[in-house]
Design a protein that fits this description.
Layout lengths: L3 H24 L2 E2 L7 E2 L2 H14 L7 H7 L11 H11 L5 H31 L1 H17 L1 H8 L4 H20 L3 H15 L8 H11 L6 H29 L10 H6 L4 H4 L10 H4 L2 H8 L17 H18 L4 H12 L5 H11 L4 H27 L5 H16 L8 H33 L1
Helix pairs in contact: 1-5, 1-6, 2-4, 5-6, 5-7, 5-8, 5-21, 6-21, 7-8, 8-9, 8-20, 8-21, 9-11, 10-11, 10-20, 17-20, 18-19, 19-21, 20-21
Length: about 450
């Protein structure tokens, strides 16, 4: 029989799944009106949904926006492959509507809740004992089930949905290696990081920020064994990534790794609006602001025309992304004196320390994440900060390595510095906070209960 805490974690997981289904079907049902009380497909979600349908029809990894606009099917790697492939499986089974895809994506919420609970339980048990471990597992699962910044990604068809449980696996694999630093566990860590990168490309940086950091800093291994294990971790990651990397570089004109949209993302943070004023540190419509469509049309004739224009030319996606990358870097190098301040603004945006009210407005008014969930998510984030700090201190005092958790901050801050700050890009931090704060909350729980009982007794 499963321990009661594990049964509790699974029960919370199923409850969280039911809550997400309710949100999909009743709280924010699918619509095409753009109304505030329903969900309208757009942005990244449009790409994921329609690319999945194309894959189900045998058109592998094509640009769905271009197909809708002009009827042209051209190769695309706008996002890594894992999420569209997942959705395509449901499309193949006849469950290809937006609502079906949203409902299917809530399975990632179930995975997140259960994995957060099990990981927190195991880690806390190893460090603080079984009683604290059981409580930490249940608390972590409950927070993961209810935290708006977690469930909102599932019901919006965003790649952060699958990314969340995969980040838990990367943290957990890193932790297990610190307890027993074997080559097998290092290979599992490298593979876990690579799978996460197949959902969100920036996770590949964890091969450096987590895998290599673990082997070069504070461990009992000899120098030769560190080199071997570092190589094992990176190689395991590359083996997992190899099919996607090879596939991309066989079909595009320019070299493409995990995504052919890195230049587009960088471009969104490369103009005066994104570097100053109210929108400093966040994205803007920089391509249009800098009137780069004129330069693009000169360099790639026919590229920037209306879809029904017979002279319009659809160019290889990697070539256009190279153009965006060059123009984004050009703006950055032309404004290097302001770059350090912009980096701080971007990091401040991601950590909700800079122009918080404006970022909140962007979340619900521009990103479409709805006002109440966005506000509650912000409050939840702030509420977890003191418990996260206490959880880190508890681990530190017991001589445990903090790197499996702290690497998530390094990853997010690096990605923000290179592109721009955005709340949903903070997913690795939010996931790590849920697990680490559960240690503190589990340890504090008996004291809180005793305090409440004492107060009630005094009132009587």
């Amino acid at each position: 029989a499963l321990p009661s805490a594990v049964r509790g974690i699974w029960a919370i997981g199923l409850g969280g799944l039911a809550f997400r289904w309710w949100a999909v079907l009743f709280y924010r049902p699918t619509c095409d009106t753009g109304a505030a009380d329903c969900y309208t497909l757009g942005g990244d979600a449009f790409y994921h949904h329609f690319q999945a349908d194309l894959i189900a029809d045998g058109e592998w990894f094509k640009n769905p926006a271009e197909q809708v606009l002009s009827g042209t099917l051209n190769d695309s790697a706008g996002d890594p492959p894992l999420y569209p492939l997942f959705l395509a499986a449901f499309s193949k089974l006849g469950m290809g509507s937006v609502t079906w895809h949203r409902a299917a994506s809530t399975l990632f919420g179930l995975a997140l809740i259960v994995l957060c609970g099990l990981a927190a339980r195991r880690i806390a048990t190893q460090v603080f004992g079984a009683e604290v471990g059981d409580r930490a597992g249940v608390i972590a699962a409950l927070v993961a089930a209810l935290h708006p910044l977690m469930w909102i990604n599932d019901i919006m068809l965003l790649s952060e949905g699958p990314y969340q449980p995969l980040i838990v696996l990367a943290i957990w694999a890193g932790w297990e290696w610190t307890r027993e630093p074997t080559r097998r566990r290092m290979a599992l860590l490298g593979a876990a990081v690579a799978v996460a990168a197949l959902a969100r490309a920036e996770a590949v940086a964890l091969l450096g920020f987590l895998v290599l950091l673990l082997v070069v800093w504070r461990n009992p291994l000899s120098r030769q064994e560190r080199i071997r294990q570092g190589a094992v971790g990176v190689l395991a990651g590359l083996v997992v990534l190899a099919p996607w990397l090879v596939y991309n570089n066989l079909r595009f004109d320019k070299p493409v790794t995990l995504t052919s949209a890195s230049g587009t993302v960088m471009m969104a943070g490369a103009c005066d609006t994104a570097w100053s004023g109210e929108s400093m540190g966040i994205w803007a419509k920089c391509f249009e602001e800098r009137e780069l469509q004129i330069e693009m049309e000169e360099e790639f004739p026919g590229s920037y025309r209306f879809p029904d224009d017979p002279e319009r030319v659809v160019y290889d996606e990697s070539v256009i992304d190279r153009f965006n990358t060059e123009k984004a870097l050009e703006y950055t190098f032309d404004n290097l004196d302001r770059y350090p301040l912009v980096i701080l603004a971007r990091i401040g945006r991601s950590l909700e320390l800079f122009r918080v009210e404006h970022t909140l407005w962007v979340n619900y008014a521009i990103e479409g994440r709805w006002k109440i969930p966005s506000l509650l998510g912000l409050i939840g984030y702030y509420a977890l900060i003191p418990f996260t700090l206490l959880g880190f201190e508890m681990l530190r005092r017991r001589g445990e390595r903090l790197a499996p958790f702290a690497a998530m901050w390094t990853l997010v801050l690096f990605a923000s510095a290179v592109t721009f700050g955005l709340t949903r890009y903070r997913v690795p931090i939010d996931v790590a906070m849920i697990i680490v704060s559960s240690f503190a909350l589990a340890w504090l729980w008996p004291h809180l209960v005793a305090g409440v009982r004492s107060a009630l007794g005094a009132d009587r």
